[in-house]
From TrEMBL:
Coiled coil: none annotated. SUPFAM superfamilies: Methyl-accepting chemotaxis protein (MCP) signaling domain. Gene3D superfamilies: Methyl-accepting chemotaxis protein. It comes from Tateyamaria armeniaca. It holds the Pfam family MCPsignal. Keywords: Transducer. The keyword Cell division does not apply. This is Methyl-accepting chemotaxis protein.
Length: 249
């Protein structure tokens, strides 16, 4: 009997961690939205008496551009693909499915991306009037419930992840029970093999030289019984490790 392969369990744990990381990535949209508005405000309202130098303003522009890029990436992930190839396809597909089931949330993400891009375009054009309008539109949309939409979207992903995790735990428990029954049967067979080995050894001793062949068979049976016992113990250890990983994963 081969050792229980725990690779599939490790893959499941890795996928679960990747999905959690994806949810965290989406949740940071709230902070990124605030950050975009903050640095757009810096660019729109220079210090009244000590205007910032161009190097400082270039740094602010870079931060605002970073928020634009992050929002663009997020909206692409919602369609099922990570342009940076950091999230596995299966995770992107999972997020895409959730997004399709919550179209209003998907529209909210896209709207915030567009508003952020509008601010960046106004900055690049050095048009303070357009930047002021874009900034106010961005802030107004944020105040209109966008942050709660992000929270609800992430909560939905967490709920789905928890349910899936629960189903995986139940399936793992059912598999462990089935394997335990098989191991119990294997251990029962091992006991009988040891008994046969003992009886063969006794019979071989009783008949002397004529029982040498029987003695060899007895040794073989003893070795087989020990191997069965070792495999059973090893398999139970594997099951115990899987159960521990399921509880803590």
């Amino acid at each position: 009997m081969p050792r229980i392969d725990t690779a599939s369990h490790d893959d499941t744990a890795a996928l679960f961690a990747q999905r959690r990381a994806a949810i965290d990535l989406i949740a940071t949209t709230r902070a990124k939205t605030i950050r975009a508005a903050l640095f757009a405000t810096y660019l729109f309202r220079p210090h009244p008496t000590h205007p910032e130098d161009e190097e400082t303003r270039d740094g602010w522009r870079a931060v605002l551009q970073e928020q634009c890029d992050d929002m663009e990436r997020l909206c692409t992930i919602l369609t099922g693909r990570d342009p940076q190839n950091e999230l596995p396809r299966e995770v992107c597909a999972w997020i895409c499915e959730h997004s399709a089931n919550h179209p209003e949330a998907a529209k909210a993400f896209a709207r915030t991306r567009d508003l952020t891009v509008n601010m960046m375009r106004a900055v690049e054009a050095d048009n303070q009037t357009e930047l002021g309008r874009a900034l106010e539109a961005h802030k107004a949309y944020g105040r209109s419930g966008f942050f709660q939409r992000v929270t609800d979207f992430c909560d939905g992903l967490w709920a789905h992840l928890d349910e899936k995790r629960h189903q995986e735990v139940l399936a793992a428990q059912a598999t462990a029970r089935a394997i335990s029954k098989t191991l119990a049967r294997l251990e029962h067979i091992g006991k009988h093999v040891r008994l046969v080995s003992l009886n063969a050894s006794v019979e071989a001793s009783r008949v002397g030289d004529a029982g040498r062949g029987l003695g060899v068979i007895a040794v073989e049976f003893k070795t087989l019984a020990e191997e069965i016992q070792h495999l059973a113990v090893t398999a139970r250890d594997d099951i115990r490790k899987m159960a521990t990983g399921t509880k803590t994963g």
